[in-house]
Design a protein that fits this description.
Distance between the termini: 32 Å
Shape: extended
Strand content: under 5%
Number of helices: 5
Structural class: mainly alpha
Radius of gyration: 17 Å
Number of domains: 1
Helix content: 55-70%
Oligomer: single chain
Largest sheet: none
Order of helices and strands: HHHHH
């Protein structure tokens, strides 16, 4: 399966159906999908770009801990 090709085709079809989407070429999609994995975690530029583009969000640790504590014990253990 060629994920960038599939995404590009899907985005194009959605745009053709009247949705507002940005259709990117396969190479641009590949670079966008892989970029976060090829940069050190200290590189905040990637995170800022993802946040700016609506492709990431911040989750406060307290919110995550509350969510985790609400899960059944076996699920919590599997995640720890």
């Amino acid at each position: 399966m060629n994920l960038p090709r599939s995404l590009s085709g899907t985005l194009g079809a959605l745009q053709g159906a009247g949705y507002r989407t940005e259709v990117l070429a396969e190479q641009a999609l590949t670079e966008r999908l892989l970029a976060p994995g090829y940069r050190p975690p200290q590189d905040q530029a990637v995170l800022r770009e993802l946040l700016r583009d609506g492709l990431a969000d911040r989750l406060p640790v307290a919110t995550y801990r509350a969510w985790l504590a609400a899960l059944p014990a076996p699920v919590q253990q599997a995640l720890n």
